[in-house]
Amino acid sequence: MNDHQTRLSLEDAWTLSIDVLEQNGFSQDQAAAIARSVMAAQRDECHSHGMYRLLDCVRTVRYGGVEPRAVPEIHEKAPGVISVDARGGCSLLAFETAREPFIEKARATGVAVLAVKNAFHFSALWPEVESLANQGLVALAMTPSHAYVAPAGGHSPLLGTNPIAFAWPRPESEPFVFDFATSVVARGEVELHRRAGESIPEGWALDETGQPTTDPSAALAGALLPFGGHKGAALSIMIELLAGPLIGDRLGHQTRPADGSDEGAPQHGEFILAMDPHAFLGTGVATRLQQAEALFEGITAQGARLPSQRRYGARKRSQAEGVIIPQKLHDELVKLRDPS
Amino acid sequence: MNDHQTRLSLEDAWTLSIDVLEQNGFSQDQAAAIARSVMAAQRDECHSHGMYRLLDCVRTVRYGGVEPRAVPEIHEKAPGVISVDARGGCSLLAFETAREPFIEKARATGVAVLAVKNAFHFSALWPEVESLANQGLVALAMTPSHAYVAPAGGHSPLLGTNPIAFAWPRPESEPFVFDFATSVVARGEVELHRRAGESIPEGWALDETGQPTTDPSAALAGALLPFGGHKGAALSIMIELLAGPLIGDRLGHQTRPADGSDEGAPQHGEFILAMDPHAFLGTGVATRLQQAEALFEGITAQGARLPSQRRYGARKRSQAEGVIIPQKLHDELVKLRDPS
Fold it and tell me: What does the record give under GO molecular function (chains A, B) (predicted)?
């Protein structure tokens, strides 16, 4: 911790988050769902999805981009498909509302899809897939974001940063989880560089004219690049299609951040798939989960890291010592909690 | 076409493929399923999955690595899950056998998984997902291969090249399809470089000591690298888990090519997911498929290429002019068809 940072207990950080949200118009249920996600990210030291996002939530509600008191509505679509309409509210309460019926569906059919629709979406996906894996399910989630990324071989923003997250239950530890943007880097990382006055590495982004740039402001005005060239771009297109047209929601380029800079609705969808290993394996589940452990051991034995390892380390640390956030962020949040 | 190549009509190439397979012990059904896949790849100029793979099939049957007359067996697992046991035969006939009941399941539940088990698998995945998209379904397929790829941050082969393929139906053209290895490059490409006496680009592979190499033989003895660093590696791990333990089959490192170089069975699994847009969208399907077209237009309008574009171009060419294969390959196939 340095002079520009402040440490908060998990309890104090939770209370501050809830108070900021409720003071700014969010209902108790909406605020609690948002705070759970933001605090999970802050606890795991995923700063770009942590308490810093509370600023986004308040800014978005002020510009009319999120319905802060929305009550989500569940629709049964098919034996394996359930949809929840966030009704312009945040995706998080919609997910929490549909979570139990979705799990029941996955258990009954073996595989099920949850479509979250018409949602303001700003959060990391891993808390959702991790919560499904904690129930013994295998889970995959994806969502488009606004048009920030150029397709491979292109020069203009069209695709969202389109994250994909996956979780696999492990018998004796936290689930195997990954969650990554299909851009080279999450837009939140570029934004954090801009706020810190740092340049970004080459290969992350193009400027407005389609030329490579290391200036985070130019990158935010231009286009991020997809990770892994045409393969990452292909994956990103798949995410747009599944979490957009397939579930009856918007493509990335059909949404706009509600920040006063642009017309358009910030709402879009999220696609979540869950599978129940018992439906596939019956009594063989325990043996097959052990088999998967052999893969994880083969990775760590050669000095490579599992995707979730660092995050789980941070979680232990935060549970013992609380979280550290920039003093500037803390001041902004206190100002939002106690408006003059 | 050059002096070292030969042109075959699609009919002649088909007959040659069938004759090679049947002459070498494959049943009529197995041979036809294999020839359909190999010819689809050759027609679309995916050389690494084309007629060259017939050599693999014959080599594998000679080493006892594939049951050439296997009759696949279907098992219902759950309302959304169907499994087909290839019984040591090639994956292709198993897929074809289960295809119709799988499609029915996806239509009934909205989302379904087909698990292909205990299969000799050498083929591209795109013909399978394309065939599902031609029935109006959205499809995703993945399979592990043998341990050829080092995890990100590691140095030894552990993961398969683990391809993933996706298809989306388009109202007025061939489906949107991608199919890529989660290694930087498919192993077949390295093998083609070795056969051609060419070096491979930097960044594709490590040698046996874990050092970067441009020698295809050293790469084949060492490890390929995952595409896109830790993100591609994470995706590759997911593919191992879904197409391995989840469906009750082997991980990449638990299989071995049957080429006389090693002990072990070449059989492993394939995971295929299909979703019926009608279950998600009801009468809104046509509108939402049109919405997806806006994304494809946004990509091609900025000069970027859709993943399947080149392949569909090759298909038109081959349908008019036949296919071109190396003379050396043709000679080898004729020798396998007419053993002395």
Answer: oxidoreductase activity
